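Thread: "does anyone have the structure for this chain?"

Original post by V.I.:
We have the sequence but no experimental structure in hand. Need at least a predicted one for the grant figures.
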Amino acid sequence: MAAVDHNLEFGIRPVSEDIERMLVREKLLAKLSSFFGALAAMLAGLGISGVMAYAVAGRTHEIGIRIAIGARRLSLLRAEMGSALRLVAVGIAIGLPGALGAGRLIEHQLFGLSAAEPAVMAVAAALLSLIATVATFVPARRATKVDAVVALRSE
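Reply from O.Q.:
Generated one for you, tokens below.
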């Protein structure tokens, strides 16, 4: 072949190498998307935890009164986490249609998936719920550790 034309590229290599070279851009995009998705999940967890900590700090007096009149710490933990997780559920209910709409913008980059893949949406909602549960646990647990006497004197 080289005797016929010196400009021709000739060599024997596996087809997998050619496929690998063709998919470099798609793999980079997938890695970047995964990184930014993980970053967004971490920021969501930090944000939920911060808002919950602020809410608990603002209601220290109320929590102190509840403890003083005999509220069990487990019921306080459930109440604090329940209020935060209800907000997360509302956020997921509002965010899912937004995600479906935004998915139409990147649908051409999804290989083998549609923008409205129910399994992906369910996993994303479940993951966000898990992150929110972990993020709300620490401030809610801190709320159950409030000393009633100190909380009542602080107001």
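V.I.: this helps a lot. The helical segments are 15-22, 24-58, 60-68, 73-103, 118-144, 148-154.
O.Q.: and The chain has a mean pLDDT of 84.
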